[in-house]
Write a structure and sequence with these properties.
The chain has 7 helices and 4 strands, in the order E-E-H-H-H-E-E-H-H-H-H. It is α+β, with helices and mostly antiparallel strands and about 180 residues long. It has one domain. A hairpin with a 7-residue loop joins strand 3 and strand 4.
Length: about 180
């Protein structure tokens, strides 16, 4: 692998296609390359996965403070999840909960799929749809809680990741295991 360029922290929606809220990502962290150059590929992946999980936890904490709260289910349902692994890429994402967890039905009484609440909060709506009552829906302003969390929490996430890489590389050199750095989220 050789460098930290293929490591990703994303703020995204849940595991199903209708949960895709792409909030952005931290990729190509050049400041993380120096400690990785002396390691084997297996060690880079092992330490990199721990580092990205801790960095994603820092973004998760920030996202939970920024998300608008109505019932609290969305805030409580935000989780850190692993990205699909490949030979050259690994990382973690802050994922939104499923429709079932949030209590959003698969279809409404008219057979239409209702809007995914976290996506409406993140991106807003343009409005203008006809309502049964004869009126027209109003646009909803985007709150952008995931993108803001990633943007505002970048420095903290990178700092936590650097601490994990430093501690794990020292532990790997001495043959010991280290406890979690970032705390519980």
């Amino acid at each position: 692998m050789g460098a930290f360029k293929n490591i990703t922290i994303k703020a995204r929606g849940g595991p199903k296609p209708d949960h895709n809220i792409s909030g952005g990502s931290l990729t190509g962290l050049a400041e993380m390359n120096a400690p990785f150059d002396a390691m084997t590929n297996a060690m880079q992946k092992k330490i990199g996965r721990k580092a990205t999980r801790e960095g994603a936890k820092a973004v998760l904490v920030r996202a939970r403070t920024l998300v608008p709260v109505k019932s609290g289910k969305l805030r409580k349902g935000l989780r850190v999840r692993s990205l699909k692994r490949s030979r050259t890429r690994f990382g973690h994402k802050v994922a939104t909960p499923t429709r079932e967890y949030l209590g959003i039905p698969a279809k409404d009484k008219h057979g239409k799929v209702p809007a995914y609440y976290p996506a409406v909060l993140e991106y807003g709506t343009k409005g203008g749809k006809r309502l049964e009552s004869g009126g027209v829906s109003r646009p909803r302003v985007a709150k952008s809680y995931l993108r803001r969390a990633l943007h505002e929490g970048r420095a903290e996430a990178v700092s936590v990741m650097q601490k994990v890489v430093a501690m794990e590389s020292i532990a790997a050199a001495s043959g010991q295991s280290t406890p979690d750095v970032g705390g519980d989220a």
